[in-house]
Amino acid sequence: MANSLNGLDLFASVVEAGSFAQAAERLHLTRSAVGKGIARLEQRLGVQLFHRTTRSQSLTEEGALFHRHCLRALEEVRLGEAALASNKLTLNGSLKVSMPVLFGQLCVAPLLLELAQAHPGLALSLSFSDRKVDLVEEGLDLVIRNGEPPDSLDLAAHRLGEHGMTLCAAPSYLAERGEPMMLADLAEHEGIAYLRQGRVLAWQWQLDGQWQSVRPTGRLQFDDLHAITQAAIAGFGLAWLPSWLARPHLERGELCEVLGSLKGRRYPINALWPHSPHLPLKTRMAIDWLASRLPARLASVAGVGSHDQ
Fold first, then answer.
1. How many domains does the chain contain in total?
2. Range of the domain at 79
3. Residue limits of the HTH lysR-type domain (predicted)?
4. b/e string for 70-80 if b means 16 or more Cβ within 10 A?
5. Nearest one of 280, 279, 291 to 158, comparing CA atoms
6. Which CATH number is 218's domain given?
7. Angle 281-300/61-85 helices, nearest 10 degrees?
8. How confident is residue 3, by pLDDT bands cut at 50, 70 and 90?
9. Residue 248's closest CA among 304, 189, 192?
10. CB-CB contact of 264 with 164 (8 Å)
């Protein structure tokens, strides 16, 4: 492992500086030492990382690919260092975080409040919204989002966990319309659709190693998961809900699970932040805090709030 990490910080520094000479100056090394270090890394990897001329340098296609993974590896090391230091350091300053409304209210905000309670010098500014945000323009330290992270060199990401989906319906609806036993049966049922950015979110299951999608049809469409949940409880149709949201209603008998034997789509939960070689301690600590506690929080959520995912 140590050998695999050797040279990554040097490579990242050269890319950030824009040239071997500027990297050498920043690192207080000779240009020759930087060049030899990159050459050793290229030899170990068996690829050329930079196009070199007498006047300029640029990343090769392989170099650009390796750089993306290099940044993630270095960020993991920094997060580990922050985790080790967490019991020794006191957090100060303001942490500005954006998160989905209902997921944030039930699952994320309580954990961040615990972090603030453990560090009285930490101030929280929490924004609950599902809209697309510009982290730099809005001055955000961290964004929590469900789904795959964007492929962007400007953003860093850390996976905090994942959540599954559950197809549900009220007992009254199933008593009137019958219970679907296979995916083909869903065409005969009312589906309460979830709208995200104006598009209906498809329901997805894995059958024989292939993902099968069903786009719900019905007279109700909402961009709010709480509204979908309440409509399902009222008997308007089938609803595809995050398991952490559906669970308390299933336990109270307000909803029943449908097609529970099928493997439904699971969605990753990610923390996103503007990429920087020097991540502030408050942000590192918040990421590590959420990653270590969110899975248990998802399993223990026992109430509902309002608004959307």
1. 3
2. 8-84
3. 1-60
4. bbeebbeebbe
5. 291
6. 3.40.190.10
7. 80
8. very low
9. 304
10. yes
